[in-house]
Amino acid sequence: FPFPLWFNPTSLEPSSTYEMLGVLMSLGIYNGFTLPIRFPRVLYQRLLGEERDKWDTTAIEADWPDLFKGLGQLLQYTGDDFEHVFGLEFVFSVPGAGRQVHIDMDTGAIINESGKSRLVTMANRQEYAKKYTDWLVERSVTRPFEAFKRGFFSCLHPRILSLLDSKTLQNLTEGMDEDITVVDLRMIVEY
User: Fold this and answer.
1) For residue 55, is pLDDT > 70?
2) CA-CA distance, 21 to 93, in Å (whole number)?
3) Residues β-bridged to residue 110
4) What average pLDDT does the chain have?
5) What is the CA angle 44-37-166, rounded to 5?
6) Residues in CB range of 98: below 8 A, 6 or more apart
7) How far apart are CA 153 and CA 186, in angstroms?
8) Largest CA distance in the chain
9) Sign of the C-alpha dihedral computed for residues 5, 7, 11 and 15 taken in this order
10) Which of 53, 71, 92, 134 has the fewest beta carbons under 10 Å from its own?
11) Phi/psi class of residue 87: alpha, beta or left (left: φ > 0; alpha: ψ in -120 to 50)?
C-alpha cells in the first residue's frame, strides 16, 4: 500500500467488525505470517502503550507526510498576516455519509458549515497542531481503535508484546520495508 490504512472516524461499521480485524491481525502474527497491509506506526505505539508526550506532530511524519508538511509550514510561518494566510479554526474535518463532518476540537461537538470555532493564531498554533494530531490518531478513532485492540489482545497477551517496541511489532506484522540483496544474505548465511 502506498499509504497507511487508518480507522474511519465516521464509519458505520459495528465495533465487532474492528474487533474481528484485531483478532485476524494477531492470529497472523501468532502464526508467523507477514500481512499485506500497512498501518501507521502510531497504531503499534498505541497498542503497546508507548509513552508519548500526548501525540506530537512527529507521530504523523512518516505516515501522513502532506499533513506533517502543512503543520510544519503553519508552525514556521513568521509573517504578520498569519490569520489571513491560513484562515484556520480549531476544527477537525472528516468525510462522512457523503459530506464533511466538522468537529470543534475544543468541545468535541459537531458543528455545521456556518458554525464558528476558535481561530488559530500565531499565539495558539502550537496548540492547534497538537490538538489536530491528537484528533487524527486518538480522539476521532477511539471506538474503532478500542474494539481493534480488544480483538488484537484476545490472541496475543500484552505481557508478551511488552518485549517488543513499536517498530519491531510493525516489522513482525508487515514485514520489513528494506530490500535484501544476495550480498547481504551471503554475509549472514553459513554454508
Assistant:
1) no
2) 25
3) 103
4) 87
5) 15
6) none
7) 38
8) 71
9) positive
10) 53
11) left
Query: What letter represents residue 56's amino acid?
Result: D
- Of the two residues 54 and 184, the one the predictor is more confident about is 184
Rounded Cα–Cα distance for residues 37 and 25 (Å): 10
Q: Are 167 and 62 in contact (CB under 8 A)?
A: no
**Residue reference for cell 487508518:** 6
3 state DSSP class of 164:
coil
For 101-141, what is each residue's pLDDT tens digit?
889 999 988 887 667 889 999 999 999 999 998 899 899 99
* H or E element in which residue 100 lies: strand 99-104
Q: Is residue 175 very low, low, confident or very high in pLDDT (cuts 50, 70, 90)?
A: confident
Specify the pTM.
Answer: 0.83
pLDDT of residue 71: 92
Specify the 3-state DSSP secondary structure of 68. helix
Answer whether residue 56 shows pLDDT above 60: no
Mention every residue, 6+ apart, whose C-beta is less than 8 A from residue 25: 35, 37, 148, 151, 152, 173
Assigned C-alpha cell, 143: 471506538
User: What would you report as the CA-atom Rg of the chain, rounded to the nearest whole angstrom?
Assistant: 20
Rounded to whole angstroms, the Cα distance separating 61 from 28 reads 27
